[in-house]
Amino acid sequence: HKQWDGNGLAQGYGGWVRDNHFDFGRQEYGPGASCVDTNQPFQVSVAFPVNADGHLRAMDMTLSQNGKDCQIQYSMDRYPADEHFELLSQALRAGMTPVVSYWKATDMLWLDGPGLGDGPCREDTVQCGTSPQFYGFSIEDAA
Predict the structure, then answer these.
(1) Which of 43, 97, 98, 106 is the 20 to 30 A CA-CA neighbour of 89?
(2) What is the C-alpha end-to-end distance of the chain, expressed in Å?
(3) Whole-angstrom distance, CA of residue 30 vs CA of residue 38
(4) What are the pLDDT digits (tens) for 59-71?
């Protein structure tokens, strides 16, 4: 997160962040949902497609789950703070380390609260699952 980034840009559902794109909701993603039931393991795939000049043109994410006949896909193909993804393209070329974070706080409703996107949380209970598991990581050069 850089100073030129402002509030950033988000996609998905929930929260109060301005410029969110609410591409799916609790019916498709969350506990007991039809496409990705977050009570069960699910897969996350992220791709960084580039144009003919090698510059990033989007960040594509797919959420899927074994046994489900639908998946959640979205593409972040615009970013006002870095209009042609020049800065992010430079950062990706320089090398990055994937980071996964799992944490809690008492002031997270901006992210997952009812907000404009009708998020799942009505209050911050500061309760997280007791044993999250992250596995099956792989990094590939798709070129």
Answers:
(1) 43
(2) 27
(3) 5
(4) 899 999 999 999 9
